[in-house]
Design a protein that fits this description.
By secondary structure, the chain is of the alpha+beta class. Among the domains are: 12-89, no CATH class; 135-175, no CATH class; 196-347 and 634-685, no CATH class; 390-585, Jelly Rolls; 887-973, no CATH class. Helices cover 36% and strands 10% of the residues. The chain has 32 helices and 20 strands. The strands form five sheets. Strands 2, 5, 6, 8, 11, 13 and 15 form a seven-stranded antiparallel β-sheet that branches. Strands 3, 4, 7, 9, 10, 12 and 14 form a seven-stranded antiparallel β-sheet that branches. A two-stranded antiparallel sheet has the order 1-16. The protein is globular, with a radius of gyration of 33 Å. The two termini are 36 Å apart.
Length: 974
Amino acid sequence: SDKCIGCHGPDAGHREADLRLDLPETAYAKLAEGAGYAIVPGKPEESQVLARIDSQDPDDVMPPPSSHKTLTKTERDLIERWIREGAEYQPHWSYTPLVKTTIPQAQGETHNAIDAFILSTLEKKGLKPTEKAAPHDLLRRLSLDLTGLPPSPAEVRDFQKNPDRYGEKIEQLLASPHYGERMAVPWLDAVRYADTVGFHGDQNMRVFAYRDYVIESFRKNKPFDVFTREQIAGDLLPNASDEQRIASAFNRLNLMTREGGAQPKEYLAKSAADRVRAIGIAFLGQTTGCAECHDHKYDPITARDFYSLSAFFSDVQQWGVYADYEYTPNPELRGVNNDFPFPPEYVSLSPALLARMDRIDQDIHALLHQQPVEEPLLGAWRKEMEGFLSKHPDGWQIATIDGPTSSKQTPLVINPDQSVTATGEPRKDDEIAFPVSTRPETSIGSIRLEAMPDERLGGFVGRSPQGHFSISPRVEWMDEKGQSHPIAIAYTQADLSRPASYSNGFESTVSFGKTWLSAPALYEQPSDLARRTQTAVLCFAQPLTLPPGARLVVKIQSSDLGRMRIALSPVLHPVPGQPAISARFREEWASKTAPYHLCRTPESKAPAALKTLLTEKRLCRAGVTRTVTTVAIPTEKRPITRILPRGNWQDESGPVVKPAVLSFLPQDSLPKDRELTRLDLANWITAPENPLTARNVVNRLWKQFFGKGLSNVLDDLGGQGEAPSHPELLDWLACEFRESGWNVQHIVRLIVSSKTYQQAAAVRKDLLEIDPGNRLLAQQSARRLDAEFIRDNALAIAGLLDHSYIGGPPSKPYQPAGYYAAIQFPDRDWVVDTGHSRMRRGLYTHWQRTFMHPMLANFDAPSREECAADRMQANTPQQALTLLNDPVFQEAAAALAQKVHDPVIQKSIEQAFERALLRHPSDAEMQGMLEFYQKQLSEFQQGKSQAKHQTAEMAALTQTCRVILNLHESFTRY
């Protein structure tokens, strides 16, 4: 197909001589150009195909010389034989209906159906399977495959004593929370998950909640059909839950831009095409992207199919350019710039952040038990809190405003409820100061701003023609001498606003009467939004106690401010309009806010460690997170979808298309009486008549456990892919997957329970020539761990890996200085995480699409600018240099040395081998390590090498552990 079908296949626009060879009715027909027939079944001597292949005339020979393709003699003879035997055409294997094949009978021992299929093939070829792997290799393999982490030496010793408990180990690892992390990585590749938008400045976007959803879905063994439905159409489900709205972020993982001068229409076309490619790769195993410009050359996917799939996503609210420039055609993006996110977003509680906060609380209270408690301060704090809550059960005290002023002399009226109304025409760049009367020694942690409708403003909250207003608030306190002191704001939360991401920590922007955050309200009329009371909360970086004589001042820049009221709270406060989140705060007030008081006064002697923990807790934002989400545009507002000739976004001459699935596949389950939606697409993807999805998913699962799929080209089950090595087994597994209720763990359990999986990975000479690629599966395949798991493995061996909670914001481990120098719009630095975060698992590393973390890039992790169903495995010098010089691996070696240190160096080496390789060193290995250790020790003792903060003995042992961690065996899965 790669040498003929490109010119004589499905693509009518580029078909040569009007000859199509992929269908029997056209291949058998009389030639449109010239005499005779291309193929005459049973008569190769009359078939022009063979005559043209054999021609010596450069004008007649096929393939033509200009194609730079030639047929081998084997290929030519195969075509002749096929024609002689009747030239029978069969449908492409992946497009045929799924039929559950009868399990074959094998002579040897089998554990399940997988073994029967594999063994029967081996027996036909006179081959035998390889013996079972050694217990330590088998348990390590199973643990790495199911969790991405190695077992402990104690677990290996126990398994060596009880190898018959293999089934128990499977269940134990499937139940591990780390199973979800391991299974998530290939899926995140396939859907191009990243923490940045990719194009131009490659700015950050808030999306880690989607990654956590994927992890949790695999951990809970969510049925794959439900998993599919929630991602493609979670926002369309009845009474969509937080989880389903977060899942719909799948539709927002495309690349985005806010480049000056970018054409919105062009980037909308890019996003639409990207979503079709994502559906093709992630769910169907098809290269749909070829049909963006023309009918697919090798598969029956037409350009109409491509744009009909694109039409499903025409309801996704999006913008071509996410920026506020004077010429932006999207006035609703006013105020969006490099410091702000990519709307729409959805707010929810993050289980990962809540778990992280709980851990920090445990550390705080453990630290307080170790340190002398400043009882007078704590007592005063508790008394203050109890008194405040007794007077203000909702946690807010309405502030008394003392003489507000306007820089543009806007008339201001103080109302009886202490709200302030600005009247008159909007005045550009106005700044209104709200001096707040407070008691001496008042503690303030948060400020609430309420935008309230006012009859003097026509019942709206603001003075703009639409009734809304935007503000940029900042807070400061004035001392007795009138000196101003800005107050750092940790973050802003608002019920109907554009959430802010602070560039300097002291200023923000909030839009009242417009919605960016509340997904369900996105398409309510502005007049409705602008008539509601809305709130925003400014959370201080730390609680503030005003000194005697000081005054708090809230300054608000706004051209069209309407009516506003200010309230104060002594603690870091919840998100407005989110009762569940507010309740979380209320629970913590009594028991978990006291430590803040220990750090908030000058006389406090709180340890630095406590202040660090409190800073880390503040970064958790009380467990609240946002993620990009999908919001459906009402039908009457949706843009039309056209076929773009040659993919040209400027050409509007193509016909309009409606949502439709691939035309060459059955569509029995689709409704016929209405326009199709994304929910219909999601249901069709896992419908019984669709043969692609189940084959695609089990093929990718197989690759995870054997190194290659049953069909080796994971992203193309079409004509340019590879026929499966065991087609009956692939179809049997696909049927089993569907019949089990799309149960992923059921297929995983079948695979790892099989004798085929449990074979040793030893190289067999008898197979090197017969089956160098191990397609017959007469043995297991050894392979290097993926990038994330190489790092995880080293940290786990050293005891440094922090896996105390699952999910959460991206982490930032060490990265070479200056690596981000070329990133602009905005310029930014890589700030290494402190504490536990920098030792988290590799899948949590901040994924910068255009500047991937060097460790991940060096070990072939994809940039995720495009969907990636598989990862290449290169072998480069950078990999060795990374393992030697990356500070993470150096710290791992030092920590391992600390753990295995023993006065007898042989025992240290023995323990290091056991922790890293789960086995004892051979005599030759021990001798080599001893010689290396002695050489290093001599150099450190003589001062030829410098060891900071280590004795010469520990430095030499660290270098020895470095060698062990760099052994090929350490990062290879056998």
